[in-house]
Structure to design on (496 residues):
């Protein structure tokens, strides 16, 4: 019998430090609940579960030197365990549609994966501290968990470079600081400062009388999920509850969240030419601009809005979809087929690698387009040598099949989830059209949030059958970790 090449006890040892570190963010809703006179027990229960799991992992864990596979397994499990811990307050509170374990885990997994799909129906039933817990889950899921894992692993002597490179692209991560733990803390600082800046501007609009509903609570809550490109809102109407000036600030927050944080740091050091010189950034902004104008034109042609309002709603909802945020300034599920299908295409774009966004991401589409162009060129010039270049530099040829496989798997898994949704809806007698099922599949697997119909921006995923929601929970996790690392875990070669 062959021996396992993955030492699960070592993986548990790595898990323990990360789980115990979660006590810090969990203390935030506890303090707020006490200050606001709300029940703190749901969050204390989550802290107790965290301690039990953390100490249990430490007790069962092995302090032997971890291998890359051990760290790989630990990092994948962390996303699951954080979602489980995040679900505890919903279950213990026992309020509303998130009181059951499946719905609670759906809401929590949607939070930590920055999906923004919700099963809530009556927001007013929940305390402010509970609604802010949803926002905090998404802020942690944006970059917080990744940075936490990288920092803890680095402190334990495990390189966190590979983990950060998953989000930040290989060549640039190591240029920021000599040590990966320092890099992680630097990125966390930038992430925090940007969040506070967006919150400050939103609150300033409120104080100036320009955004009456954007009080300090809403300013902080929406800044957290705008920069995290996550999409949860304590308001039932999402961003539509606020005035246009506040929405434009949220647009800026989403666009920044969709930009590589490594690129932002390098730009701050070397000047704006570094940002404008990035081919990926130019394609990202260009695609957002083109799609926004197309949606705005569709809205004008259908007679729904005048040009000014059409441009406003077209830009806001396009940016929200492309950056996988999931805010909505209007119920776009009611728009014409042209506008809704344009937004549907935007679900597959994604923003930059190294940002808080999910989906396929701009860089992979750039690589795919350049690879197709090269193959067409080589078909005519078979003896030519033509490397694929990014920012004028040839990229590693090993990256190309990774990008192609990722795009293919993304499309295939969205289609498979669509079939599951349609079949399960028919079994349960739930009215879901094929396009609505396709939108819900893309919105959950690509970590976007709102879809169309039942899963529309002002709707809820609560109406989907339980087996469908379980499948969505799994695929939200798979989508956030970017498919291939998860699929590797189920192969025999990983374990033996």
């Amino acid at each position: 019998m062959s021996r396992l090449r993955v030492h699960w006890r070592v993986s548990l040892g790595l898990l323990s430090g990360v789980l115990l570190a979660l006590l810090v963010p969990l203390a935030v809703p506890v303090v707020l609940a006490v200050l606001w006179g709300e029940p703190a027990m749901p969050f204390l229960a989550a802290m107790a579960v965290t301690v039990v799991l953390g100490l249990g992992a430490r007790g069962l864990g092995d302090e032997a030197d971890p291998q890359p596979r051990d760290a790989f397994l630990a990092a994948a499990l962390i996303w699951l365990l954080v979602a489980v811990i995040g679900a505890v307050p919903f279950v213990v509170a026992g309020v509303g549609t998130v009181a059951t374990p499946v719905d609670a885990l759906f809401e929590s997994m949607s939070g930590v994966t920055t999906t923004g799909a919700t099963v809530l129906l009556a927001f007013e039933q929940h305390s402010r501290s509970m609604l802010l817990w949803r926002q905090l889950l998404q802020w942690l899921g944006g970059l917080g968990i990744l940075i936490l894992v990288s920092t803890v692993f680095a402190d334990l002597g495990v390189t966190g470079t590979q983990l950060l490179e998953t989000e930040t692209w290989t060549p640039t991560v190591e240029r920021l600081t000599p040590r990966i733990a320092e890099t992680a803390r630097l990125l966390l600082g930038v992430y925090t400062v940007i969040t506070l800046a967006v919150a400050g501007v939103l609150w300033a609009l409120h104080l100036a009388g320009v955004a009456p509903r954007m009080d300090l609570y809403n300013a902080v809550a929406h800044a957290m999920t705008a920069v995290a490109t996550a999409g949860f809102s304590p308001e039932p109407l999402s961003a539509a509850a606020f005035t246009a000036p506040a929405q434009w600030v949220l647009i800026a927050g989403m666009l920044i969240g969709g930009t590589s944080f490594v690129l932002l740091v390098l730009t701050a050091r070397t000047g704006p030419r570094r940002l404008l010189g990035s081919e990926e950034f130019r394609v990202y902004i260009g695609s957002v601009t083109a799609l926004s104008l197309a949606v705005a034109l569709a809205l004008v042609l259908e007679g729904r809005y005048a040009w000014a309002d059409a441009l406003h709603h077209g830009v806001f909802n396009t940016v929200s979809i492309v950056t996988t945020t999931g805010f909505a300034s209007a119920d776009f599920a009611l728009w014409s087929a042209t506008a809704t299908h344009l937004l549907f295409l935007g679900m597959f774009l994604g923003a930059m690698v190294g940002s808080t966004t999910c989906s396929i991401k701009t860089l992979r589409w750039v690589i795919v387009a350049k690879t197709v162009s090269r193959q067409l060129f080589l078909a005519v010039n078979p003896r030519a040598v033509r490397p694929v270049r990014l920012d004028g530099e040839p990229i590693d040829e090993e990256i190309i099949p990774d990008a192609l496989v990722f795009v293919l798997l993304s499309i295939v898994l969205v289609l498979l989830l669509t079939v599951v949704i349609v079949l399960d809806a028919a079994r349960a007698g739930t009215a879901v059209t094929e396009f609505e099922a396709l939108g819900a599949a893309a919105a959950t697997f690509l970590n976007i949030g709102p879809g169309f119909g039942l899963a529309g921006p002002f709707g809820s995923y609560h109406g989907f059958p339980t087996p469908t929601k379980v499948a969505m929970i799994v695929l939200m996790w798979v989508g956030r970790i970017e498919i291939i690392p998860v699929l590797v875990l189920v192969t025999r070669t990983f374990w033996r």
User: Anything to note?
Assistant: The longest strand covers residues 389-390.
